[in-house]
Design a protein that fits this description.
alpha/beta; 7-stranded mixed sheet
Length: 475
């Protein structure tokens, strides 16, 4: 590791010991580094430090906070190659994708550096001549976040940037699989001038122990979580005791729909980008494909040909487009879904095999039906199950037949159909003739059991602000 990246970005690593957390490269299954496990008692002390730092930070002007975020953004861009390499080493995604994530993650710093200057209040027409009414927006206080392993930088900056811009302090528990990206990104924030007690990264062998503190501590006023719906339900219940503000970006089961009037070549390109990015390990990637009868065979043929060109391997190797799954449990889960689908009648158009280590062949399944397990669950892997459909109303019912409502995609050449279908899909985000929809300028989030709250866009900073109403009388 020391020979590959700037050592100053990895100050949080430690020597191997009984209490250290081992960080594993999923491509080689070898230890990359060790990080310290922070005890619950120490985390409690850090909450107090975060609280005191926040009181000083909120007194800074929006412009002063903005300047620090802008500097942090520039440092991330200056160190993009090192950050990307760290990410690939601990997470496994191809280096080109890691570089893309660094740029995406940094974009939130730049965006919210500006949005922090626009947290306007209001002057409200008074109900009586002797009164004046106005509102201001103030930071909620200490904000905490629990972030996943699949986007270890972007899922932090998408939360930290609006929190810090609003005047909050920020504590984050990154996934134990990918803590190095978090520590390296935080180190650049400190170099940008952010006080260390304002941005605190904590890891513990027990994610539950950290979650308990974040949910139940009175001084933590806001919790943001990205992860599974199952864990999200638990965190919401825990947070209810302190009436804590929460935002949840939870599981997804995104439909990717190809209508008979779509440009099939464009649909194939969008499907590849949506499904196989990060080896299919994203909450917004296409999980189940619905293709209309008239174009089913053409789409399957062209899609399978495109999938066959994907190269599986270590993300540091040139030309690799599909990296490993994150760990053995992930691989076992994906292979289990493939096996069950075949038992239930699906046909393998290509792939379908597990490879050495944590790798899985990019897989296309045909003759898939709505009732199969692989259609009804969130599938984190490079597997594309394709369902045939006939009419639009049938399609909408199938696409909405899930507890999830995060992202959805469809391709059509008809403007009336585009509006009609987009309005009927029960999802927080809809990609219309587009397979990549994530951007800092648009609100990211879901409906139903995919969660609530929005990240990015102008709405993202609202999650970290309270509205205070002030009534002046006797005028």
């Amino acid at each position: 590791m020391e020979q590959i990246v700037n050592k100053s970005l990895l100050n949080a690593t430690c020597d191997a010991n009984d209490d250290a957390i081992a960080v594993i490269n999923p491509a080689t299954e070898q230890v990359v580094a060790y990080i310290p496990s922070i005890s619950s008692s120490e985390i409690l002390k850090l909450v107090e430090k975060s609280k005191q730092a926040q009181k000083l930070w909120q007194q800074k002007t929006a412009a002063e906070r903005s300047k620090v975020l802008e500097t942090w953004y520039q440092l991330m861009m200056d160190n993009a190659d090192d950050l990307a390499r760290i990410m690939t080493l601990e997470q496994g995604k191809p280096l080109a994708e890691s570089k893309g994530e660094v740029n995406y993650g940094a974009s939130f710093l730049k965006w919210f550096a500006e949005e922090g200057k626009r947290t306007y209040g209001e002057v409200i027409p008074e109900p009586a001549s002797s009164k004046r009414i106005m509102t201001i927006r103030q930071p909620v206080g200490v904000a905490a976040a629990i972030t996943p392993w699949n986007f270890p930088i972007a899922m932090i900056t998408r939360k930290a940037a609006p929190a810090l811009a609003a005047g909050c302090s920020f504590m984050v528990k990154p996934a134990n699989q990918t803590p190095l990206s978090a520590y390296a990104t935080a180190e650049l924030a400190y170099q940008a001038g952010l006080p260390r007690d304002l941005l605190i990264v904590v890891n513990n062998h027990s994610s539950v122990a950290v979650g308990d503190i974040f949910c139940t501590h009175d001084d933590i006023k806001k919790l943001s979580f990205t992860g599974s719906t199952e864990v999200g339900r638990h965190l919401i219940k825990q947070s209810a005791e302190t009436i804590k503000r929460t935002s949840m970006e939870l599981g997804g089961n995104a439909p990717f729909i190809v209508f008979d009037d779509a440009n099939i070549d464009d649909a194939v390109e969008g499907a590849i980008a949506s499904k196989f990015r990060n080896a299919g390990q994203t909450c917004v990637c296409a999980n189940r494909f619905y293709v209309q009868d008239a174009v089913y065979d053409e789409f399957v043929e062209k899609f399978t040909q495109a999938v066959a060109k994907l190269k599986v391997g270590d993300g540091l190797e040139e030309g690799v487009t599909i990296g490993p799954l994150v760990d053995s449990r992930a691989k076992e889960s994906v292979m289990g879904y493939i096996s069950t689908a075949i038992e239930q009648g699906a046909k393998v158009a290509m792939g379908g095999q597990g490879l050495d280590g944590l790798f899985v062949e990019p897989t296309v399944l045909t003759d898939v039906t709505q009732d199969m397990d692989i259609v009804q669950t969130e599938l984190f892997g490079p597997v594309a199950p394709i369902v045939r459909f006939s009419d639009d109303q049938e399609l909408v019912e199938k696409a909405n037949d899930t507890i999830y409502g995060l992202a959805s995609y469809f391709y059509t050449g008809s403007i009336p159909r585009a509006f009609h279908i987009a309005e009927q899909l029960e999802y927080g985000m809809v990609g219309i003739n587009e397979g990549l929809i994530s951007t800092e300028v648009a609100p990211f989030g879901g409906v139903k059991q995919s969660g609530f709250g929005r990240e990015g866009a102008k709405q993202g900073i609202d999650e970290y602000l309270n509205i205070k109403y002030m009534c002046f009388g006797g005028l």
